[in-house]
Design a protein that fits this description.
Elements (H helix, E strand, L loop, with lengths): L2 H17 L5 H13 L7 H4 L2 H4 L7 H12 L2 H6 L9 H18 L2 E3 H8 L4 H13 L4 E6 L4 E7 L8 H69 L4 H15 L4
């Protein structure tokens, strides 16, 4: 089962669980803690958009709504800067938020230096960083890439997407529209080049055929000339012709001797 299908199943589970809770913000807070601690859940926007979850705003449990927003869009460093206004994280939540931080970093840059990663993830040495990347990111399936110890960097080949921040959807639509326009122009250019190539191919075939026809005409003409030359040589140089003429002259001289 791929990661996308697993995500869909986990999201559906927590959405159903949270949507059935009515009038009990403490139970809803527990569901949020459970969701943000789940080892295989990395998307939270569907839970965040539930009406009863949004109703936590302004209540004594509003910090759990803020916590859910942090897991949907934030990073480990952002959590640390706001930790006094948020619930204390469990070890599972800390790991999850660091994994989500890795996704955000991988989305922005395809080559991540070890120094940047160690700073953003609060990792003290390269060995710990590489263990985290291998065991908690690549093995889990949220990131694929290459560890380059010589250059001290991680080359990102794939990273799972995170929930869109507010306002990101418009930018994404604009980006996709630009990409679509560029793709359409590229497709038109490719079609024009295909038509040009087809035209040149037809002209080349026509030119080749004309050359073959000319060559055949020349070969036929040369063959005909050679045949005519052969026949003409046989007509004027037939064996015995000169000998007969000379013999005839000698016989006439013998019949009319000079006095």
């Amino acid at each position: 089962m791929d990661i996308e299908q697993k995500q869909a199943e986990h999201i559906d589970h927590f959405v159903k669980q949270a949507s059935t809770i009515k009038g009990s913000s403490s139970y809803l807070a527990n569901v949020i803690v459970e969701a943000t601690s789940h080892p295989s859940l990395f998307a939270f926007s569907e839970i965040l958009s539930l009406p009863n979850v949004l109703e936590l705003q302004g209540t004594e449990h509003s910090i759990y709504l803020d916590l859910l927003q942090m897991f949907a869009h934030g990073t480990w460093s952002e959590y640390k800067s706001s930790a006094s206004n948020l619930p204390q994280l469990t070890p599972d939540q800390i790991l999850k938020l660091k994994q989500l931080t890795m996704l955000t970093l991988a989305e922005a840059n395809k080559v991540l230096s070890y120094d940047v990663l160690m700073h953003e993830l609060d990792v003290v040495n390269v060995r710990e960083l590489e263990d985290f990347l291998i065991n908690e990111c690549m093995y889990v399936g949220i990131v694929r890439g290459k560890l380059d110890q010589l250059r001290r960097c991680f080359e990102v080949q794939f990273a799972a997407g995170r929930d869109l921040r507010p306002g990101q959807l418009g930018n994404m639509i604009h980006t996709l529209s630009d990409w679509l326009g560029t793709s359409d122009n590229l497709l038109i250019s490719i079609q024009d080049k295909i038509k040009w190539a087809d035209t040149m191919s037809e002209l080349d075939k026509k030119h080749k055929k004309e050359n073959e026809e000319r060559l055949e005409e020349v070969k036929n003409a040369l063959s005909l000339k050679a045949d005519m030359d052969f026949r003409g040589h046989g007509l004027f140089a037939e064996p015995g012709g000169v000998m007969d003429y000379d013999e005839d002259r000698r016989s006439k001289r013998r019949r009319h001797p000079m006095g």
